[in-house]
Amino acid sequence: MIRLEKVTKIYPGTNVPAVNDVDLEVQKGEICVLIGSSGCGKTTLMRMINRLIPITSGTIYIDDQNILDIDPIELRRHIGYAIQQIGLFPHMTVYDNIATVPRLLKWEKKRIDERVDELLNLVQLEPAQFRHRYPRELSGGQAQRIGVARAMATDPPVMLMDEPFGAIDPINREVLQDEFLKIQSQIKKTIVFITHDIHEAIKMGDRITLLDAGRLVQFGTPEELLTNPKNQFVKDFVGADRALKRLDLLKVRDAMLENPVHCHESDDVASVAQAMREKGLNFLLVNDPRDRLKGYVTLRDLYDQSGKVGDFTKPMTLTVRPEQNLKDALSKMLTFDIGIVVAVDNDGKLMGVLNTMTLAQVVGQTYDEHGGRWGKITAGGKIL
Ligand SMILES: Nc1ncnc2c1ncn2[C@@H]1O[C@H](COP(=O)(O)OP(=O)(O)OP(=O)(O)O)[C@@H](O)[C@H]1O
Ligand SMILES: [Mg+2]
């Protein structure tokens, strides 16, 4: 989809290339993360793709077409660009900023209105509250989200995102990353994504490109970079806690115990209490008739009671989804000081449970420091 062949950039008046002989291929529908220290050439490389910076030598193709053969304005209409310095037009409202390109493309007002609201919701800003504000009335992180919304306005097939979440606090950043990945799994854009943050790279990237002083050092999946760093530079960059970072790559599904013991809300209290006592359970999950999680009961709640279990069920305030990142789940468990968390799917159906034991197993056993080999994990947290 996007292919760079021996691409070099030497800025006029300098003699050290900002980008040096880079070959790179970004597949359609993939997020390719560019990472590296400040000044290593990430922004320069990105801006050559939409022709905001002329290439010194080498060629860039989009869909096998040399970008020099495409009218630059036409090219940029098909490439959403969220720039590093946010770059909102200061004299225009949030609405007008987002509507810039749709207007150029002569969309109808109703369609633009709907799209602006849709995008504001997407970046978690209440449309009624933010639509009419000016950039100076936004925090840095909010302005950055508007920048992302603007880049996505016309639903371009290719997106260039230069540190799109860089100014956003860690908690909101996680929310936006998750939201973004959820949407990306449906819309499958081809995305070049710059970050400084190795965690973000591992979480967001289908592939990661590590640059150093304008040169490509390693290109591969997050898994490859973590398990098989090409040299000391990559090792230092991904960090000594590679085993923990790998949690970013694992999903709740990889570690959860499937088919957890549960009862149904229509079950009889006395027989459930009896079964719990026999099995030594103080706590039991309760499903509704369609096997969606209703909540849980404790043995104490059922003591000397009669009727249906549903009447004694308490809701589960914190759940995770099987496709959620394991590190996020672990961090929730630590934050809320709970030893067990239940995984439900989007319909609320009970899928499995995670407990600290399975997590400890996964963290402890996936990486064998001596052999230097990653173990394979099967569903249910068993390690092969
Ligand atoms: N217009 C310019 N003229 C001359 N040199 C430039 C110009 N723009 C960037 N550079 C230099 O090119 C190199 C790469 O810059 P670039 O902005 O691509 O880095 P970056 O990896 O995006 O850094 P950061 O992480 O800080 O955003 C730097 O050494 C920078 O000083
Ligand atoms: Mg930059």
Number of helices: 16
Number of strands: 19
What share of the residues does DSSP label as strand, in percent?
A: 15-25%
User: If you compute it from the alpha carbons, what radius of gyration comes out, rounded to the nearest whole angstrom?
Assistant: 25 Å
The N- and C-terminal alpha carbons lie at a distance of: 37 Å
Shape: globular
- Overall mean pLDDT score? 87
How many domain modules? Answer: 2
What's the CATH superfamily of the largest domain, by name?
A: P-loop containing nucleotide triphosphate hydrolases
Alpha-beta content class: alpha/beta
CATH architectural name of the largest domain:
3-Layer(aba) Sandwich
Widest sheet: strand order?
A: 6-7-8-3-9-10
Largest sheet: 6 strands, mixed
CATH topology of the largest domain: Rossmann fold
Assign the CATH class of the largest domain: Alpha Beta
> From the structure provided, what is the oligomeric state, counting identical versus distinct chains?
single chain
